Amino acid sequence: MSDTTKKFLYLNRKAPYGTIYALESLEVVLIGAAFEQDVALAFVDDGVYQITKGQDTAGIGVKNFSPTYSALGDYDVNKIYVEKESLEARGLTVDDLLDLKYEDEDDDWAEKDSIRVVTAQELADIMDEQDVILSF
Amino acid sequence: MPIEVNGKTIETDEEGYLVNLSDWNEDVALKLAESEGLEMDENRWEVVNFLREYYNEYQIAPAVRVLTKAIGKKLGKEKGNSKYLYELFPYGPAKQACKIAGLPKPTGCV
User: Fold this and answer.
1) Chain A closest CA to B108's CA: distance in Å?
2) B109 classed as catalytic
3) Within an 8 Å CB–CB cutoff, is residue A55 touching chain B?
4) In 3D, which of B42, B50, B28 has the Cα closest to residue B100?
5) Residue B107 lies in a domain
6) Mean pLDDT score of chain A, rounded to an integer?
7) Closest chain B residue to A36 measured between Cα atoms?
8) Is 70 exceeded by the pLDDT of residue A47?
9) Nearest chain B Cα to A34, which residue?
10) B76 touching A, CB under 8 A?
11) What is the pLDDT of residues A67-126, one digit of tens each?
């Protein structure tokens, strides 16, 4: 890895709609990834709702941007951490989340899951390894 | 700055991108291409249609790097490189092709 590549973690804590945080975070992620940085995302607290399946925003008159998370694999963003405790507290499981995949260039383009459910302790360790953490 | 297509006035922003994505049709695309000084041939349509499909699925216009990779995968390796795409769209495939496809400017594109 070159000296100019840093490890970025985008920490998402808020519900997808009602504030602009989730959408802004996603846009910054896409911009950061275009500059070929090492990007990972974490979803914690109500942030886990950002990547739930079956979002329908027709009633609130804003764009449903959840399909865009499925493009992250194309941007080589394939480390998506979801905190186990946050899912459990909301009665959610990994089956309620979007099916986010990426193709592994080093493994004959095999399709792999991007989402990794981790405990709060594991996430703390992941945070320790980062150069930059941006919290939304 | 509005454009006229088949007697209908269509709104565009100061850079020439459609204000309402739903205003798009092939005649509008031809008009937008004309304002870019480009003639729509089969290869250009292929990229424009690809971008529309990508936007439909993911709700974003892809960055050039992503577009190049995806085009290569879908339309063949000889088309999945920036040289080919810049020959078709000299002022930038993401910028010009997105405009003709009626999509917003790609995220992160200045």
Assistant:
1) 5
2) yes
3) no
4) B28
5) no
6) 93
7) B65
8) yes
9) B63
10) no
11) 999 999 999 999 999 999 999 999 999 999 999 999 888 888 899 999 999 999 999 999
In chain B, the number of structural domains is 1
Q: What ipTM describes this predicted complex?
A: 0.83
The reply to whether residue B108 touches residue A75, judged by beta carbons under 8 angstroms, is no
Domains and CATH numbers, chain A: 7-135 (3.40.1260.10)
Q: Confirm whether B110 is domain-assigned.
A: no
In a domain, B30, yes or no: yes
What domain range is B82 assigned to? 3-100
User: Does residue B104 sit at the A interface (CB-CB below 8 Å)?
Assistant: no
Compute the average pLDDT of residues B75-84: 89
Inter-chain CB pairs, A–B, below 8 Å: 34
With contact defined as beta carbons under 8 Å apart, do A70 and B55 qualify?
no
Burial B46-79 (b: 16+ CB within 10 A, else e): ebbebbbebbeebbbbbbbbbbbbbbeeeeeeeb
Strand partners, A116: A81
Dump strand ranges (E) for chain A: 7-12, 38-43, 79-83, 101-104, 110-113, 115-118, 132-135
- Asked if residue B106 belongs to a domain, the reply is no
How near does any CA of chain A get to the CA of B71, in Å?
12
Q: Amino acid identity of A110?
A: A
CA of A96, closest CA in chain B: separation in Å?
Answer: 19
